[in-house]
Design a protein that fits this description.
One of its GO terms (cellular component) is nucleus. This is Pre-mRNA-splicing factor RSE1. It comes from Candida albicans (strain SC5314 / ATCC MYA-2876). This protein has 1219 residues and is mostly beta strands. The chain folds into 6 domains: 42-46 and 1124-1216, DNA polymerase, domain 1 (Orthogonal Bundle); 53-151; 155-253, no CATH class; 264-434, Methylamine Dehydrogenase, Chain H (7 Propeller); 438-459 and 805-839 and 849-986, Methylamine Dehydrogenase, Chain H, CATH 2.130.10.10; 469-790, 7 Propeller (Methylamine Dehydrogenase, Chain H), CATH 2.130.10. The protein contains 9 helices and 94 strands. The strands form 23 sheets. It has a 5-stranded mixed sheet with strand order 91-92-93-3-94. The relative contact order is 0.09.
Amino acid sequence: MMMRDGNISGPKKKKFTTKCRPFSFYKNRHIIMLINDESVYLYNLTLKPPSYYISSIVGQFYKQDNSTKNAQQLVLVSSTTLQLFEINEEAGKLELQSSQNLLGIINSIEKICLSEVDGVVITSDSGNLSILQYDNKTKKFISKIQEPMTKNGWGRNYVGENLAIDPENRCILVAAMEKNKLFYKIESNSSGSKELSSPLEAHSKQVLCLKIVALNTDHNNPLFGALELTPEKKCIINYYELDQGLNHVVKKKPNSSNSDPLPNDVNYLIPLPGHIGGMVVCGTNWCFYDKLDGPRIYLPLPRRNGQTQDSIIVNHVTHVLKKKKFFILLQNALGDLFKLTVDYDFDKEIIKNISITYFDTIPPALSLNIFKNGFLFANVLNNDKLLYQFEKLGDDLTEGELVINSSDYESLNSVRESVTSFKLKGLDNLALIDVLETLSPITDSKIIDSKLVTLSSHSYVKSITHGVPTTTLVESPLPITPTDIFTTKLSLESANDEYLVISSSLSSKTLVLSIGEVVEDVEDSEFVLDQPTIAVQQVGIASVVQIYSNGIKHVRTVNGNKKTTDWFPPAGITITHATTNNQQVLIALSNLSVVYFEIDATDDQLIEYQDRLEIATTITAMAIQENISEKSPFAIIGCSDETIQVVSLQEHNCLEIKSLQALSANSSSLKMLKSSGKETHVHIGMENGVYARIKIDTINGNLSNSRVKYIGSKPVSLSVIKFSNEIEGILAISSAPWISYLYRDSFKITPLLEIDITNGSSFISEDIGGEGIVGIKDNNLIIFSVGKEDSVFDPSQDLTIATTKLRYTPRKMITNGNRLFISESEYNVQGPFKCNINGDVKENVDEDYYEAFGYEWKQNSWASCIQVVDSKSNQVIQSLQLDGNESIVSMSAVSFNKTSTPSVPASHLVVGVCTNQTILPNSYDKSYLYTFKIGKKHLQLVHKTELDHIPQVLENFQDKLLVASGNHIRLYDIGQKQLLKKSTTIIDFSTNINKIIPQTNRIIICDSHKSSIVFAKFDESQNQFVPFADDVMKRQITSIMNLDIDTLIGGDKFGNIFVTRIDEDISKQADDDWTILKTQDGILNSCPYKLQNLIEFHIGDIITSFNLGCLNLAGTESVIYTGLQGTIGLLIPLVSKSEVELLFNLQLYMQQSQNNLVGKDHLKLRSYYNPIKNVIDGDLLERFLEFDISLKIEISRKLNKSVNDIEKKLIDLRNRSAF
């Protein structure tokens, strides 16, 4: 794949294309496919699913094995993904149990009781009402019920907009925003499983349904409360009752005593538990309790002391205690939590009082969930999700704290006139214990040194790196230069490693250290210390063997005394390699012989097998299965002829070669490991830096199903490490250390970050809290653990996120050498910082306070700044706060009278701002261009230029500043006091230019309304841009990038990705025969020539950025895209015809075989707005890896391929550019 940057011109234009023969037909089992050599074929993969979770629910979705407690789990659902988490109470962490791409767009989700466990009810764009249940065997949700409700897609009459389930699981209500409401009764069939009856309709004409909640009726008919809007724009409350006896729906209105008109600022409904019933209706600074046959009870909502912000409830969670007691936590839009309690008279069945108190302040959330074991999960809006633990319930109020009682208020007017305020405080009742890192929303991204740097999560720069963090525990120098390191325990029953053995082949020495509270020399080890050690192993019950160059030292502990036995090779022969486990020892001699020993279980004696194996070539590595209770049936021997041999160690054919496997290079290290009690794999480190994994049949020793990964330029060294009691893996060290392990039937290989070692070994000690790794680098000993400090290793996470806090919502990021220039603007916010663009200003701002409680809200106000971040240290090195009520709308780095290249960064930074800007309706007072000089350390203001238009787009074009606004494009050059206008162009058929890509002598214009994409060339004779080609399809572009000088990839606001290209002949004519081309007349108020559409694909998220690059070592350059909801995806170019044909046909069979959990047709999903074209959906194809073996074989036979061939192709595709 060859690509050229749009800023580079030349005589030859290379295309972003696949190398296929022209117009070939391929026929396989009645499947015909057309491939064109001018087409682009891409393979889509989702690397990180959306992390904007629209809802979260807590329930008992599966029962834990051997657990008497009814543990609860957490379900998080984004627009396309369903994830299940479990709380590890000992570590206080959320652990991911399952993550599924539903291949549909989720609208809402609720919990439903399915006999012994809970399930989830989902409404989606498929038009089905879906009920899913978690299968603990497959660790996935499976479909139980698919009930068609309406047609596919969205609309005002889509009944899945609102979802409510009766608390006693008797019926489900789904309601459209307009008119339609459907009631499904939940019934049990003869087998005891749940099923849905035919729906009962309850249509409400001429009203809009804003919100519906299910009410508790204490075994009476199911009842639902609805907030609706009349044609007169008045809010009303209606009740809908399902009469189970007559099997129809009755619409009821509040009784006459509750018929007071509702204020139009009503926004939220909260149902109360069963013995009380009814609901709390909330509005701006007020709420009241309403019940169908009871009086209303009014209360004001607390407001922050000394601030003018209103208190608007946006979220709540109800928690029921023992003896029918309960409390409700209300959260307003600022994040303040209020505790609502009800004083209920059970004898008279009336409410005596409702009280509200201030509880705590946490970030504003979309949903809150309380676990029975005392945890609170906050599904935070546009930021990391937070897990809290209850320290107390807020009952011990001190004197002076706010308590609001309903008995003090009689009417809604008295409540609305009342102002009750409280004083903010730090967390008192809650304690933060875990953070679930998310990326939503992503507004921009760049690839820097194989890291994806994003502007995300409200106000952060987040650098995403493929790798697992490490924590260094001990680092100390050694008296020798080590070349190898080993750890061992002294007895079989010992849980901890007790000896640390360091070997040096350079100085022919061995150092034995004891492991405990301190690391010190061992004087009585009985080891040979004047020769380098090859292996150390605890064998039998209480023995240790040391294998060194000239023999084997066997140290036995008998009645507390150490006894030694020596074994020596023949004279002049040395030991070159060794591999051991608790019962077996295998060594290789310099005369190419292999000697095998076993341990006598009765007295720990070392018994030599009488025969020896003679190898024809030099042995480079060897391995037997480690850390097992039984004997290893085979040994693996690597030879210098680039092969590995499988040698039997079984009694009937001991030391017999069973099979052989050719490699791409000599093996430098070998390990054999049984993965999670299932398959056994041979792990191979090669001298060319390739790490391979091959499955071995433990019955006959056959090798199959190989997987390879390039991990560095140096020979690969392997060692077995233990991450936890359940997970063992491999430490692979080349140019950098990597770890590989099997987790939930998925094999992961991930680099270790922030550590540099040349050799390592597993290390278990209570003094470091469990499992760790001890390594060597130069003359230093390093002990470290895998995972972040004070946290356990999470095998489900192979991405590390480094964060840098910003002030406001980041909008755009520009790279300049090692610095990032970031523009930030936030609406309806009053910033506490003073303007300092003309120089430093002394100020004392408590940033911790604003981090906890947020900035003060102010209507139609803006807070904006520019921050400079060092991309290496992730530190903010300069902050420039803008003056007054200014908002940043655009920013660009410009080289005035100087060519900008990657080695010569731009000289100036230009920022476009508006004053007093408002949104809906859109307006502004004045607009300016700030010009800053980019210095070696800081930005320095040069001058300020006033404009008569909003600077919507700024770009660098031919050493001038290009400014686009509306349908005008202007060029500016730098002056002494302001920027000087040099050119003006009006694009008649454009309306609102929002993106421009500059090239050498032409630009690519994007319009968010009418003309979509336009190619224009700068005509020096006319001193303006002349458009000559545009897109045939009108799109609302959100992001765009050059693939080559003629090819573009873009995304629109509806979640579609497309690739378009200008015809090669037209592009050449624009360069060579411009005089003729520019005189061509346009067609129907557009350009004379049209672009070719090459790719169409629906992602389901609004694309905010594209980057060319890769996220792994020596990977293929691909397109990496980010979505607003936190999606990170990859588009890999497919480079051969056979590959395209295989994947295309596999996709067809997968579409036929795949059972979608929400009932969405895959072709309709990926063709939401335009038919899918030339993109293979890797998210669908990777489900092949999860199929049972019978279905895999059925599909593979249709494709004339083996199952292993298909699996290997899918894994190799992912490894090309990602992980």
